[in-house]
Inverse folding.
């Protein structure tokens, strides 16, 4: 790692190479983790986007992906899924409703969970998040509408959860979470991110031209990515990569930084192939294998 100061480092390719070692011939899917992706609603069904999200988790190396969605949209998404499985949740007005029994069934055997992508807004989501954070001991990636949901809750719940929580906001979402104006965040992004992560005992991945990843003690900077990734669904792909890696890696700052680096590198490869104008989020997913090959070759 390139040391910037006593607690800040820039991630280089060689720093994450050990996350992608060759796998023994006698392993099976269970060795690499069952992971869940909970999201979707009718107005944000984005069947292809959700499929891309789950595909990115598979490409990142987990064993099995369980896509947990409202029952109303399960049929629309199913044709886009090949290797992944689907778990329909009871819904009302096309959005998930809280059910302790169903949540327990949906999360059974999971090594990690990503939650909030394409959710929309509902008071039920606060109940769902509160239950998961209060009753599970797994890494949980909270993104998109999951971030909007938790920003409306008493965020002190993050200090009492058994889960290892990973929050993945862009600047506007971080403004809602931290209650600090974007212009003030930009004045000292690294310190504010670090202090927030320490206060709430989370790993924070703050998206930007340079991605800031911090656990409140150390800060890892990821300078990978490209303009072509400024397209719908790119954030979803990152969440998929993160939960996929968490299926078989420790939920620590280096694993999260690895996800950001892999996502950015795959995006750069996609831009070379499809241009910054024409690339779409699924192109990043397609280029994940090539990105992993490049990392292994260092």
């Amino acid at each position: 790692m390139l040391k910037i100061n006593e607690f800040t480092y820039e991630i280089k390719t060689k720093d994450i190479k050990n996350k992608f070692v060759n796998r023994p011939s006698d392993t099976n899917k269970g060795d690499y983790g069952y992971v869940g992706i909970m999201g979707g609603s009718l107005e944000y069904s984005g069947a292809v986007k959700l499929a891309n999200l789950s595909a990115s988790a598979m490409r990142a190396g987990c064993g099995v992906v369980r896509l947990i969605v409202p029952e109303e949209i399960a049929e629309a998404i199913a044709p886009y899924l090949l290797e992944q499985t689907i778990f329909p949740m009871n819904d009302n007005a096309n959005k998930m409703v809280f059910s302790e029994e169903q949540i327990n069934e949906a999360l059974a055997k999971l090594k990690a969970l990503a939650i909030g992508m394409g959710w929309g807004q509902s008071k039920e989501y606060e109940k769902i998040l509160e239950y998961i954070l209060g009753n599970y001991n797994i890494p949980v990636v909270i993104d998109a509408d999951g971030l909007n949901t938790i920003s409306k809750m008493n965020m002190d719940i993050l200090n009492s959860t058994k889960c290892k929580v990973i929050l993945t906001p862009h600047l506007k979402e971080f403004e809602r979470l931290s209650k600090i104006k974007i212009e003030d965040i930009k004045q000292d992004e690294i310190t504010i991110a670090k202090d927030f992560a320490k206060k709430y005992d989370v790993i924070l991945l703050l998206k930007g031209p340079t991605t800031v990843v911090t656990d409140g003690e150390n800060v890892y900077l990821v300078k990978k990515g490209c303009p072509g990734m400024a397209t719908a669904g790119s954030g979803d792909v990152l969440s998929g990569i993160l939960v996929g890696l968490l299926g078989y890696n420790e939920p620590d700052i280096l694993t999260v930084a690895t996800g950001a680096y892999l996502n950015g590198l795959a995006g750069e490869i996609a831009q070379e192939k499809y241009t910054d104008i024409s690339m779409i989020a699924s192109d990043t997913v397609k280029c994940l294998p090539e990105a992993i090959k490049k990392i292994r070759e260092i």
Observations:
- The chain has a mean pLDDT of 94.
- Residues 253-278 form the longest helix (26 residues).
- Residues 2-17+31-179+194-297 form a domain with the UDP-N-acetylmuramoyl-L-alanine:D-glutamate ligase fold (CATH 3.40.1190.20).
- DSSP finds 14 helices and 13 strands in the chain.
